[in-house]
Design brief:
The protein has 181 residues and is an alpha+beta fold. The chain is built from five helices and seven strands. It has a seven-stranded antiparallel β-sheet, with no helix packed on it.
Length: 181
């Protein structure tokens, strides 16, 4: 009888260890690394990743800030933009501007190409003001500008890129639309 009890206890322990080992191996892994995969984040992100983009729209006396959250959902990415303007109201709240879902193979919104074009603006100096910051988990990449002219060039490039994802742009956060006659 004692032998049977020991065998049953041993069997229960063996089976429970096997179940625990199986659940540990089934956990999804993180494949996306912000530093190496930044210009290919659509394909490299998993459903466990969140890419946060912070953009400072401030110029001279204007103060505006945008926060974009990008998440992966199956074979598409979800992009949610919130904006806060502080020029006229100190305690303004974040307002949702848009919520878009696009295919990971979308060819209209070329944000990765924008990042490649502006590679020279990547900043490692913590004392420089970051205009664009990308964050995933504990990693952050910051982009800085060098003076007002460079800021205007960078803003124009960013606005042109972002109008592709939000063409209705009624809030004017991506600059004014130029209508050709």
């Amino acid at each position: 009888m004692k032998k049977t009890i020991y065998i049953l206890i041993g069997l229960v322990i063996f089976v429970s260890c096997q179940e625990k080992q199986k659940t540990e191996t089934e956990k999804p892994t993180f494949k996306f690394d912000l530093i190496t995969d930044l210009t290919n984040f659509r394909q490299k992100m998993t459903e466990l990743d969140t890419l946060t983009i912070s953009f400072d729209h401030s110029v001279c006396t204007y103060q505006g800030y945008e926060r974009i959250e990008i998440t992966k959902q199956s074979d598409s990415i979800n992009i949610v933009s919130n904006f806060k303007e502080l020029t006229f109201e100190e305690n303004s709240k974040w307002k949702k501007i848009y919520d878009r879902k696009i295919s990971e193979n979308d060819t209209i919104w070329k944000f990765e190409q924008f990042l490649k074009r502006n590679e020279k603006r990547k900043n490692t100096d913590q004392n420089k003001r970051g205009i664009l910051m990308l964050t995933n988990k504990k990693d952050t990449i910051s982009y800085s500008i060098d003076g007002l002219v460079d800021l205007n060039i960078f803003l124009a490039d960013y606005y042109e890129t972002m109008r592709k994802i939000y063409p209705e742009n009624k809030n004017g956060i991506y600059g004014i639309e130029i209508v050709e006659e």
